[in-house]
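Changelog excerpt

This revision adds worked examples to the README so contributors can see how folded entries look when concatenated. The first example is reproduced verbatim below.
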Amino acid sequence: MTKRKKILLIEDDQDLAELYDEVLSAKFDVEIAHDGKEGQELAKKKPDLILLDILLPSMNGFELLKAFKKDQDTKNIPVIVLTNLGSKHVDDDKKLALLLGAEDYLVKTYHQPQEILEKISVYLPT
């Protein structure tokens, strides 16, 4: 039996975190951080992929992404930004996230959890 891949979900919205956990747990082991500092700590366990919200308490997603990509231990972990920043600045935010090293940028309101699972499967084939 192959070992299940691990995903770190950094999401401060409890309901959304539970929803994604439910969907993702069918294929992956999921660990959840509810703020930036906790996400930074849990990333040290070297998950196979990080799902990262942008608007977080204690440290925003862009700061976290920068920190992940600078750190030897986490720089090669694929990061998918998952946010509700669907504002008029979405193009700028997406460019910044990709420039900082994110693999992808998904707006939660435009993607059902099942679609997000399919996106993850591109980076983590099971």
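The second example, added in the same revision:
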Amino acid sequence: MARTKEERAAFHATLRGMAETAEREHPEAVAALAAILGNYSMRNAALIWSQCPDAKAVAGFHDWRKAGRVVRKGAKGLAILAPMARKREDGEEGSALAGFRVVYVFDVSQTEALAEGVAA
């Protein structure tokens, strides 16, 4: 994982490039995946597709646990960009976009059902 500000910026640039390439070269595939995933942006759908073209359903580690599945040991997460919110400085209600951070999701193919008797 990138530790310095420069490394993070370079990694974000790499992810943006991956998404732009997928959107430009495979727009139909990215749009189809975005339709399947529903609650992910087109940019994140492009990132997911560029890392796992066969993705069918993706979620974070803890969301899979809640769904009764566990991520297989050694599975590599799919990097996406999640928005970060901060309090608004103008005194208005709600929050403002503070930027994006890298989070990892896993495709259902990278998971398996929890064993019987194991608490989620």
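Reviewer comment on example two: The first helix runs from residue 5 to 25. The chain has a mean pLDDT of 90.
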